[in-house]
């Protein structure tokens, strides 16, 4: 399957996957830095993080999800982001199309209407007895074996999106005479 860079669905999915990947790196970098800080500074950073989390939680709906400005919906309980066209990104960084097809993070693809696996290594396997749910499970297990599962990926991406769409207002610092 060919992806067109101008496709809104692909660009949304790619942005979400990018956010998931970078947030993992940033979280580990922040954790490493925090351990080196003295206790008092650590407490201030912790308090600031808690204040920011409280501010962001006001935008989360009663089900724990968030609808973004593009019409997509983050559902961290299910571990999915549904875009405006109805496709879903999951914690394995895979994309499920409306027809039941699935593109995994490592490039494997399940074509649901044709009941065919198209693997990243170029192999094509026809499987008439496989359901879309079984195929998606197999592809997710493959991604997980390659270290591609991020349990809190959708939640992390959701919080990053909320920060992007609802930035912290600039502080009103007074000038000293």
What key attributes describe this structure?
177 residues, alpha+beta, nine-stranded antiparallel β-sheet, 4 helices, 9 strands, disordered N terminus
Give the number of helices: 4
Q: Average pLDDT across residues?
A: 82
Radius of gyration: 20 Å
Order of neighbouring strands in the sheet with most strands: 1-2-3-4-5-6-7-8-9
Strand content: 5-15%
Class derived from helix and strand content: alpha+beta
Distance between the termini: 65 Å
Listing every helix as H and every strand as E from the N terminus to the C terminus, the arrangement reads HHEEEEEEEEEHH
Number of domains: 1
Could you give the count of β-strands? Answer: 9
User: Low-confidence runs (pLDDT<50, min 5 residues)?
Assistant: 1-6, 33-37
Helix % is 40-55%
Q: What is the subunit organization of this protein? A: single chain
Short description:
This protein has 177 residues and is α+β, with helices and mostly antiparallel strands. It has 4 helices and 9 strands; from the N terminus they run H-H-E-E-E-E-E-E-E-E-E-H-H.
Question: Any overview of this molecule?
Answer:
This protein has 177 residues and is an alpha+beta fold. The protein is built from four helices and nine strands; from the N terminus they run ααβββββββββαα. Helix 1 (8-36) packs across helix 4 (153-165).
What's the helix and strand layout?
Elements: H1 8-36, H2 39-57, E1 66-67, E2 73-75, E3 80-82, E4 88-90, E5 95-96, E6 102-103, E7 109-111, E8 116-118, E9 124-126, H3 132-145, H4 153-165
Antiparallel strand pairs: 1-2, 2-3, 3-4, 4-5, 5-6, 6-7, 7-8, 8-9
Helix pairs in contact: 1-4
